[in-house]
Amino acid sequence: MSTPHVELLPARRGRPMGRHVEHDPRSRAFAHETLPADAIRSVAWTRRTPVLDQGQLGSCTGNAGTGLLGTDSAARPGLTSVTISAAAAKASHGFFGAGVYVPDEDFAVRLYSLATRLDSISGYYPPTDTGSSGLGVAKALHALGLATSYSHAFSLAALTSALQHGPVMIGIPWLNSMFDTDRDGRIPVVRSSGIAGGHEIELNRFDATTGDYWITNSWGTGWGASGSGYFTTPDLRWLLAQQGDVTIPTWSVVGTE
């Protein structure tokens, strides 16, 4: 069995992050399909829950996963409540009890905490704010019965194909130039500015005319354009090439309302 590649990116600066690089070679067996170019359209998946704010906790992975739960996809509308079954509660390492939850910041922290039990990064939250990975959160969603499986995109074309069906999580290095957006929401990717840390975010919109990819961040509505920002095609392609990853849950209809 192959050992996942785990690498801790440099310490975060200014804003909380917490994404680790965790590339499991076995994920190649679960690659998302790549659609023909003429099948790609502009998409904008509506988010039904507010922009979250992770505060000073490195829970961006849990926030990204929670954002996906609350965002529309081709499979189902975005959720405003989530039901955890007794079996899912038993599998949650004590972070969830059976019952109904709102996909808010509290839910995101619980999801992050569970992910730290299921990923390959040393340590757990609580007590230690270890950070986690997109793969760890996908495992947490699966353990809770909210996702039946998950796949991965290994190219920008595959990511764009996945976006045709719903939002995705991306884990990327966050450069020092990216803490503030331009006035229109563009996230400046200045490659020489250096890496501040690793960040996991929800990507939920693609403009086929401009080639822009829009994210919803987890730093509150005061960041970017009311909590959102966009990458150009060349910038996102480059970021993903820097040990980036793309995780696409397949949603269950069980445990959702």
Write the layout of secondary structure elements.
Blueprint: E1 5-7, E2 21-23, E3 43-44, H1 60-69, E4 82-84, H2 86-90, E5 99-101, H3 105-118, H4 134-143, E6 147-153, H5 156-163, E7 168-175, E8 195-207, E9 212-216, E10 228-231, H6 233-241, E11 245-251
Antiparallel strand pairs: 1-2, 3-8, 4-5, 6-11, 7-8, 7-11, 8-9, 9-10
Q: Structural class, judged by helices and strands?
A: alpha+beta
Mean pLDDT across every amino acid position: 90
Strand-and-helix sequence, N→C? Answer: EEEHEHEHHEHEEEEHE
Terminus-to-terminus distance: 38 Å
Shape call: globular
Poorly predicted runs are: 1-13
The helix content, as a percent range, equals 10-25%
Structure, explained:
By secondary structure, the chain is an alpha+beta fold. It contains six helices and eleven strands. Strands 3, 6, 7, 8, 9, 10 and 11 form a seven-stranded antiparallel beta sheet that branches. Strands 1-2 form a two-stranded antiparallel ribbon. Helix 1 (60-69) packs across helix 3 (105-118), helix 1 (60-69) packs across helix 4 and helix 3 packs across helix 4. The N and C termini lie far apart (38 Å).
Structural key phrases:
257 residues, 22% helix, disordered N terminus, alpha+beta
Give the structure's gist in a few sentences.
With 257 residues, this protein is α+β, with helices and mostly antiparallel strands. It has helices at 60-69, 86-90, 105-118, 134-143, 156-163, 233-241, and strands at 5-7, 21-23, 43-44, 82-84, 99-101, 147-153, 168-175, 195-207, 212-216, 228-231, 245-251.
